[in-house]
Amino acid sequence: MATGKHPKPTPAKKTEAVPHTKTPAVLEEPLSAPYEQTDPPDVEQLGKSTWTLLHLIAATYPEEPTSKEQADLKQFVKLFGNFYPCWFCAEDFRGYVQTNEPDTTTQDKFGKWLCNAHNEVNVKLGKPKFDCDLWKKRWKDGWE
Ligand SMILES: Cc1cc2nc3c(=O)[nH]c(=O)nc-3n(C[C@H](O)[C@H](O)[C@H](O)COP(=O)(O)OP(=O)(O)OC[C@H]3O[C@@H](n4cnc5c(N)ncnc54)[C@H](O)[C@@H]3O)c2cc1C
């Protein structure tokens, strides 16, 4: 309940600009200041990061997956092809998945399926093929 002891604050007039001589210190730095001014990734950067993610998914996929895990991973691979943010890469990848059904029955089989899918792109780009018997050394166990 108002006692009348304190003067009421005068409301700012609607037309009056808010005094703004100096930006408060907290806003002087650009919002992204702690981060590098990095440009959006190009097709190569996107590809390298994505292969890392996909091969690591293979490396952490169960060695003996349940039927649900097998179905989920297969669906993930197919949906991934619908949303990969490089349209011409995605188009070819979808074609590859259509003619080479992802084998999600074991970790090793999926790791090799993915390795072959990656090799398909390597060949298209004139890069050497990776030896798919070594996929676990590169992405799971290391070379020792
Ligand atoms: C689904 C998909 C489709 C793509 N399609 C295209 C395309 O159409 N055109 C295009 O220009 N780029 C495409 N890219 C990107 C391209 O594949 C490369 O990622 C990019 O050129 C960078 O190559 P990189 O030499 O750095 O190594 P990357 O090919 O990105 O490979 C990263 C690392 O993976 C390891 N590696 C290489 N081959 C294999 C393999 N077969 N199995 C397991 N490990 C391997 C190597 O240690 C390598 O250093 C695609 C990427 C993805 C994820």
TrEMBL record:
InterPro entries: ALR/ERV, ERV/ALR_sulphydryl_oxid_sf, ERV/ALR_sulphydryl_oxidase
Cofactor: FAD
GO cellular component assignments: mitochondrial intermembrane space
Chief site of localization: mitochondrion
Annotated segments matching region Disordered: 1-42
GO molecular function: flavin adenine dinucleotide binding; flavin-dependent sulfhydryl oxidase activity
Pfam families in the cross-refs: Evr1_Alr
Gene3D superfamilies: ERV/ALR sulfhydryl oxidase domain (1.20.120.310)
Catalyzed reactions per annotation: 2 R'C(R)SH + O2 = R'C(R)S-S(R)CR' + H2O2
Alphabetized UniProt keyword annotations: Disulfide bond, FAD, Flavoprotein, Mitochondrion, Oxidoreductase
The enzyme's E.C. designation: 1.8.3.2
Residues in ERV/ALR sulfhydryl oxidase domain copies: 39-139
Location in the cell: Mitochondrion intermembrane space
PANTHER family documented for this protein: ALR/ERV, FAD-LINKED SULFHYDRYL OXIDASE ALR
Full protein name: Sulfhydryl oxidase
Lineage: Eukaryota, Fungi, Dikarya, Ascomycota, Saccharomycotina
